[in-house]
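Recap from last week: sequence in, structure out.
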Amino acid sequence: MKKILILAGALLISAVSFADLESTIKNHYKNTDLTIKREVEPANSYNSYANPTSNAVRDKVISFAQTKLGSPYVWGATGPNTFDCSGFVGYVFKKAANVDLPRVSSSQAAYKPRISSMNMKKGDLVFFETTGKGRISHVGIYMGNSQFIHASSGGRKVMVSSLDSSFYNKTFRWAINPFS
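Predicted C-alpha cells:
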C-alpha cells in the first residue's frame, strides 16, 4: 500500500494525467480490476473551501438595497415601498439573498455572533444604540468604506450614512455576518 501511495504521489507531482496514473497503477500491480472514480466539479459549482458567501451575493444585497434609496421611513413598515430600519434590512435580505432575519433590530443583533468593526464586509449588518436606553435600537447594511445604508427615522427615508459621522460613531455597538 505504501508503494502505491508513493507511486501515486510521484506521478501526481510530475504532472502525469489522471488516465496515465490509473494505467500505471494497473500495469505495475497487474490489477486489471482497479476502478478509480473521478468526480469533476462543474466550474460554477460551490467550492466548500471558499467563503460560503460569495461577494456576488453581498453585491446583490447592496445593489438591491440601493434601489430603495429615498423610500419613506415609516415606523413598523416592512416594505415594499416604506420601511423602518429593521423592516428595511429584513426586506432586502429576503428579496436579494433569500435570508429570513428576525423582525426587530434587537433580535437581528442577536441573530449571529458579533464581529468587530475591523472584520466587517459589505453586506454585514451594523447595529446602534441610538435611544440611550442601553439596547440596540437601529440597524443598517454595511456597504464598505465606512458607509452603510439604512432606513433612518431622523432622515425620514432610506439613505446612506457614514460610520465616521459623530452620531453613528458614538452609537455604533457591533456588527454581524448574517450569512455565517
